[in-house]
From TrEMBL:
Residues 3-291 form the NAD-dependent epimerase/dehydratase domain. InterPro entries: Epimerase_deHydtase, NAD(P)-bd_dom_sf. PANTHER family: DTDP-D-GLUCOSE 4,6-DEHYDRATASE-RELATED. It holds the Pfam family Epimerase. This is NAD-dependent dehydratase. It comes from Brasilonema octagenarum UFV-OR1. Belongs to the NAD(P)-dependent epimerase/dehydratase family. It comes from the Bacteria.
Length: 384
């Protein structure tokens, strides 16, 4: 199948592009490289040294004989987007190309506006381009489990059946996101749902949990194919951060009580979930929602697991409970459904000692790249 991976220079996108290429799909990457620019602006770097996208793709070709088309540009620019789509003619579009950090979106007004304009306008342009010229193409859009927030009832996959005053309907599940970034995903979902209902487009919204890990079969093949691994207080995410902190002897940064519970998944499952979504497209007019995570953990439990794994490797790992820079529930009910991808054949890589060991070893290998000043969180959700 011809698959365009938007955001293919990023953490999930790069691993996905190579995985799909390896499985025989004809893959194109579209990216404006803005994530590399944001890193420079913040003065942070991924733990792992990532090569320029052109070199990455060339190396992939040299190693495997497989080609990946490259389109460098911004999907908020409709003319560029439309030209790229006509040049590639995708049957499926996997859309990772957004500003994805909650703290980044909460820095100030400018960053909130930038996040929402980038994410909403990009997705809206894509929907209009599909409506005009590619109405049969399947959009596979990365959403987030954070769209739901932490309600005191079970979280369903996108929709909930409600009985009200003697009548019954199945409606979009209520959303209570916790950052300007997470809000942008909710707004996207509404726009995509509208485009499916009104124009008959087909889309799958993958409400993904927090991704961890760095190695996939493909990105591990060569140093030049290495994936990014963020550890800083803005783009780094919980488990990846904890492993890198443990490796360099920094106390693990648990925010507040640490009872915050989220869905998590291994990056090897991210790439497989995308493959599954593409192989089983939504119907025309259908806005399909899958919850894409394999296990639930509280951040406190994750910190304990990393401490245990670190200790077993001879590392001295401390856990610090910092004042929570975010406004969020620190003790709450959380029970989210995730059966739709399993029903379609996902066989999860559950979090294991061996994965923690490999991530800790990876972090130890690149520990000299860590800037200790970038570890503590600096962005507050509260008004000063
Ligand atoms: P990332 O920042 O590593 O990659 C995103 C890529 O999109 C970057 O290469 C960036 O340059 C590109 N991009 C951003 N805006 C663009 C635009 N306007 N035009 C073209 N390219 C653009 O992020 P990631 O961690 O790979 O996340 C990918 C997607 O998955 C995001 O939508 C994110 O919300 C979602 N997601 C990520 C996680 C996670 O834990 N990393 C969890 C759940 C959902
Ligand atoms: N947390 C800590 N210590 C840290 C980092 C985070 O306790 O050092 C806590 C946070 O307070 C939060 C939880 O861990 O309660 C998750 O935070 P995170 O930074 O790991 O992830 P989050 O901000 O939710 O965002 C990430 C990705 C985002 C994706 C989301 C999936 O950056 O793109 O949408 O995970 S989800 O969390 O399911 O919404």
């Amino acid at each position: 199948m011809k698959v365009l991976v938007i955001g293919g220079d990023g953490y999930c996108g790069w691993a996905t592009a190579l995985y799909l290429s390896n499985r025989g799909h004809e893959v194109g990457i579209l990216d404006n490289l803005v994530r590399r620019h944001w890193d420079n602006e913040l003065g942070v770097q991924t733990l792992t040294p990532i090569a320029p996208i052109q070199q990455r793709i060339q190396r992939w070709h040299d190693l495997t004989g497989k080609s990946i088309d490259l389109f460098i540009g911004d999907i908020t620019n409709y003319e560029f987007l439309s030209k790229a789509l006509h040049a590639f003619s995708p049957e499926a579009i996997v859309h990772f190309g957004e500003q994805r950090s909650a703290p980044f979106s909460m820095i100030d007004r400018e960053h909130a506006v930038m996040t929402q304009v980038n994410n909403l306008v990009g997705t809206l342009n894509l929907l209009y381009a599909m409506r005009e010229d590619f109405p049969n193409c399947h959009m596979v859009k990365l959403g987030t489990m954070g769209e739901y927030g932490t309600p005191n009832i079970d979280i369903e996959e996108g929709y909930i059946t409600i009985e009200h005053n003697g009548r019954k309907d199945t409606l979009p599940y209520p959303k209570q996101p916790g950052s300007m970034y997470h809000l942008s995903k909710v707004h996207d979902s509404h726009n995509i749902h509208f485009a499916c209902r009104i124009w008959g487009l087909r889309a799958t919204d993958l409400n993904q949990g927090v991704v961890y890990g760095v190695l996939t079969e493909e990105t591990g093949m060569d140093e030049l194919l290495i994936n990014r691994l963020d550890y800083d207080g803005v783009f780094g995410t919980a488990l990846n951060r904890f492993c890198i902190q443990a490796a360099i002897g920094h106390p693990l940064t648990v925010y507040g009580k640490g009872g915050q519970t989220r869905g998590f998944l291994d990056i090897r499952d991210t790439v497989r979930c995308i493959e599954i979504a593409i192989a089983n497209p939504a119907e025309s007019g259908e806005f399909r929602v899958f919850n894409q995570f394999t296990e639930q953990f509280s951040v406190g439990d994750l910190a304990m697991m990393v401490k245990k794994a670190g200790n077993a490797m001879g590392l001295n790992v401390e856990i610090n409970h910092l004042d929570n820079p975010r406004v969020e529930r620190e003790e709450h009910y959380f029970n989210a459904k995730n059966t739709k991808l399993l029903d379609l054949g996902l066989q999860p890589h559950y979090l294991s000692d061996s994965l923690l060991d490999s991530l800790l070893n990876f972090a130890t290998k690149y520990q000299d790249h860590v800037d200790q000043n970038q570890i503590l969180p600096k962005v507050s959700w509260r008004r000063n």
